Amino acid sequence: MNLGEKINQLRKGQGMTQEELASKLTVSRQAISKWELGESVPDTENIMQLSKLFGVSTDYLLNDEYSSDIDIPAVKVTAKKIKTQYSKLIKTYHLLLIVLFAISTFLCVIFIFSNLISQSPIDTSLVVIVSVLMCLAIITVKVLLINAVKKEKSQKGSLEREGNTK
Length: 166
Description:
Elements lengths: L2 H11 L4 H8 L3 H9 L6 H11 L3 H5 L10 H45 L6 H41 L2
Helix pairs in contact: 1-3, 2-3, 6-7
């Protein structure tokens, strides 16, 4: 896709007319039309403004081989690193969640057996306190896990925009 096609696609994707885009860039509507038809190209300043306005990189705009910012080599490497980091973080949270669940289950089993077998059962208030603390720990880890997943998804979306402005 060439520069003119990209400008046209980005403009229409934003729901803008040529007139509206021209107004934002302080150029004529005819200039926008010529850019989109490939009859002329924007100057460096206008390329920079287009990049900022549409949230894409100048590399994307100027390189006909790139169909999106993710095609830019530096963005690909960064995206892969971020994905690996979040995958490790999510696995760690899952493991922590399993461990906390196992500990709380173990404590419940001990409480039940001690009350069945022992003449002096474990103080109920102690069990309640431990159970509440374990539930809070499990909920906290679950919230961290959910936030990590949301952050990973938002990073994927913003990575292209971030790579676009470089």
